[in-house]
Specification:
- Helix content is 52%, strand content 19%.
- The protein is built from seven helices and five strands.
- The chain has a single domain, classed as DsrEFH-like (Hypothetical Protein Ychn, Chain: A), CATH 3.40.1260.10.
- The chain has a five-stranded parallel beta sheet with strand order 4-3-2-1-5.
- The protein has 126 residues and is an alpha/beta fold.
Length: 126
């Protein structure tokens, strides 16, 4: 099966929306999807506190959507073949609470494992 991977680093809600939109499109095309959370995005995801988009017009537009990126991600995860991973190095760097992190992601893995699971497929950095 084709694998589409997304590395999400940004903590802003508009970037989260973009990552989820690409994930949904890849899933609709039949690809398995891996989302690898690193840096500020990892903290935002675990704490469910995304920063506002830097452009207020974009943020207002996101608020008009029928479903936010959080709900969209939950829907595509429920379809199966969508994995959300936390970067093990960034969990340590950010000193994130392990049980809370584990409850929000499918697994905490290292970069090498993520690249192995990406299986040579496309990787998008957001």
């Amino acid at each position: 099966m084709n694998v589409f991977s997304i590395v999400l680093y940004s903590e802003t809600r508009d970037r989260f929306y973009e990552a989820v939109t690409f994930a949904a499109a890849a899933r609709a095309r039949g690809s398995a999807v891996l989302i690898f959370l690193r840096g500020p995005a990892l903290r935002a995801f675990v704490e469910n506190q995304w920063a506002a988009a830097p452009d207020t017009a974009i943020e207002k537009g996101l608020n008009l959507l029928p479903a936010g990126p959080e709900d969209m991600l939950a829907e595509i995860r429920a379809m199966g073949k969508v994995q959300v991973y936390a970067c093990s190095a960034w969990v340590r760097i950010l000193k994130l609470d392990s049980p809370k992190t584990a409850s929000r992601v499918d697994a905490v893995i290292g970069l090498n494992m993520f690249l192995t699971q990406s299986d040579g497929g496309s990787v998008l950095f957001v």
